[in-house]
Structures are given as C-alpha cells and as structure tokens.
Amino acid sequence: MGQIHHFEYGWITPALSYALSVLGSGLGLVCAGRIRSARGAGQRAWWGVLAAWAIGGTGIWAMHFMAMLGFAVEGTRIRYDVPITAASTVIAMVAVGIGLAIVGTGRLNALRLLAGGLFTGVGVAAMHYTGMAAMRLDGTIDYDRTRVALSVLIALVAATVALWLSMTVRRGLAIGASALVMGMAVNGMHFTGMSALSVHLHERRGELAGTEVSGLLLPIVLAVIFGVVGLIYALLSPPAEDDHTGAAYLDAPRRAEQPTVASPEPAPAGRRGRSTLGQPGTPFPSRRGNPPR
Q: Residue 74 sits in which domain range?
C-alpha cells in the first residue's frame, strides 16, 4: 500500500485551489445573471459560454489540477495523460453549459432546477474521475465506493445550489457570499473523492507516459488569465452597435403604435399685431369689477 500525501506542499495548494474555485464561481455568477436579462438568443449563448468557461473551466477544472499539485504517493512518480486531461476540461465546461441552458431558458421552476442540477452534478463528478483516470503511476488505484457515492452526492447538491444561485443572485455582496459557498462545495467534493483513493504499488517499476502535473501549471495559469481578462472585458465593454440597432428595431413598432398628438397652433393675431381678445365672437374672461369700456 502506497503512502498518500494530499498536501505535499502544505496548505498552499488547497488555498490556491479554493481561490480559483471562488474566482471562477464569482465570475460565472455574474455572467449567468446576464442570461435571463439578455435580449436575444445570441446574447444568451454568449453569456452562457462565458459562465460555463468561468465555472467549469476555472472554478472546477483548474481548481482540480491546482489541488493535484499537492498530491503525491511515496515510491512512485505521477504523470497525466494529456488527451484524457483535455477531455476532462471539455466535460466540465459542457456539463455546466448545458445545466445553465436548462435553467436559463423559460420560466425557472423546481423541475428545471433539479434537471439542470442532476446533469451538471453528474458532469462535475465525471470531470473529477476522468481527471483521476488520466493519472499514471507505478501502482493500481482503488476507490472506496461509499466515499465515491458521497462525493457524487455532494457534486449533485453543489451543482443544484450553484444553478439556483446563478439565476437568483444579482447584488455584489450576495454574489461574493455565494461564490465563497460554491468554492467550499467544489473543494469538499474534490477532497471527499480524493479521500476514497488508495494505491497499491507494483513491485516492478516501469516507464510512465504522459506529463507531470507541473507541466499542466502553465495551461492552468494561461486559461485563468485569459478567462479573467476576457470576462472582465466583456462585463465592462459597452454594448455593441448591433445591440443598439436591435433595440431600436424592437422599439420601432412601439413608437409606430403610439398616437401622434398635434401641437397646438398659436392664436391668430388681429390687425396690426393686436390680439383677437375682445374682437366680436371672442368671449371675455370673467373679471371682477367693472367691465371694460
């Protein structure tokens, strides 16, 4: 039995993984909040992709492999299969994207929320264990089924709560608090799944294929940087001209239906510019005292 260390470098890796999950969750909540307020299908798809990128790519996938930097097994090196690792990225983003599409279109109700949470939670768990399947070491990996089931349950609950928060939370302070809760849930799922792991080392060592986890650090950092810059730019940039044109097009029928009110014409002036007041047929206003001469 191989001795497992989940915190090889102390608390730096879990702290960074939690920070990534909070960052991705916060940005994802901001973007997801724009889905329901978007005018057209194109805008909803745009905000949905950004939210899936933030939550699935940064808050879940990058968090997972940042935490794996601190994972070590005595007596063996650890490498990761690159194609399977890339597949775990796609799984996380697609699962979150479909979950947001389920709850973000139409009227939000319990059935939509449960369906989206079920799909996203299963996708998050699949991402975690796909990422673990990419691991290569001189041994055999076994899992405790009870803890695996518990980690999947945590993923389902965390995904459902995350989707509910993404559709209901709007204010800055609430978004920050929700991101902190989502970060705890994602990390709780990860380390619960990791606690189910056990390794039986092989007596004979062989050559391991793949890349070390430190080789994934650069893609993780680049993905986070480009994701944060792109999302912040999207949030701070003014609406495109197409948005203004679309808004004007949508408002045009309303303006056409509104009745036009003619402006009152000025009273015609009498001879030599005098007012018509007092002319025959023009009533005098009621005044107290003697009538005019």
A: 4-239
